[in-house]
């Protein structure tokens, strides 16, 4: 039985009403939430927002959409231009995947983002979350969209624990599906409303329980807000990692109008062997293109 059903029809409806009403008042004014935003704009926003705060995404998204308002516009440009425009969002392979996706959309879907989740999953770099998010937020489909914020809200509100498990479980996905309102449009808005509640109120650290619209329905609060006792939650280090070195190499190429000699990236990290390894990985991933004469450039 779903969590919504266990709460009874009246309890589930109250839960939906309270969170949706809260969202209608407190939702951030983000450009990809504009009803006029194209499915392409929503797809781009979802890819950019993976593991990246929305405050960092918005200016890059605006620049990107001004330059490439359609998949055809991006597909006609070079992969290197996409990587350069990605700026410092991190994980620049996402820029390459978006360029590949734009090409596939032009070649197979007449330049349009498909409605169907199964077709969305065939696009380069589009996984289950992104496919569901685009289906819901671009086309109003009733589908289950589960991100870190949703998992945390569910863990506290329904399961009564401070944090979700380190990795998404089948039980969490089933719970999210059980909590969906029945109506398509209402379910699509519910998905983003729960995300927003997790991002703004039910935060990982120092949750603002006094501002929560469903405080009296929260199992975690009812239990006295017990501390998390599950598997250790490890943050992602940055300083000295391959990610930092790879990012530094890409940034130097991004800032240069001309290809750079190999020596220009030799000090991108403290360990020459690490720099060599990271550069080889970037070339393998298609993010850096080696040129004659030992020069390096962004692809294309």
Tell me what the structure shows.
This protein has 300 residues and is mainly α. It folds into 3 domains: 3-26 and 145-222, Helix-hairpin-Helix base-excision DNA repair enzymes (C-terminal) (Endonuclease Iii, domain 2); 31-139, Endonuclease III, domain 1; 242-297, Orthogonal Bundle (Arc Repressor Mutant, subunit A), CATH 1.10.10. The protein has helices spanning 3-6, 8-26, 39-48, 54-67, 71-75, 79-85, 93-108, 117-120, 128-139, 148-159, 170-179, 184-200, 219-222, 242-255, 272-284, and strands spanning 260-261, 289-291, 295-297. The chain has a 3-stranded antiparallel β-sheet. Helix 2 (8-26) packs across helix 12, helix 6 (79-85) packs across helix 7 and helix 14 (242-255) crosses helix 15. The longest helix is centred in the N-terminal third of the chain and has 19 residues, at 8-26. The model is unreliable at 1-5 (pLDDT under 50).
Distance between the termini: 53 Å
Question: Which CATH first-tier class of the largest domain would you pick?
Answer: Mainly Alpha
| SS-derived structural category | mainly alpha
CATH fold descriptor of the largest domain: Endonuclease III, domain 1
Q: What is the tally of beta strands? A: 3
Secondary-structure element order, N to C: HHHHHHHHHHHHHHEHEE
Number of continuous helical runs = 15
Oligomeric organization of the protein chains:
single chain
CATH superfamily of the largest domain, called what? Hypothetical protein, domain 2
Helix content: 40-55%
Instruction: Please state how the strands of the largest beta sheet are arranged side by side.
Output: 1-3-2
Tell me which CATH architecture of the largest domain applies here. Answer: Orthogonal Bundle
Main sheet specs: 3 strands, antiparallel
Strand content: under 5%
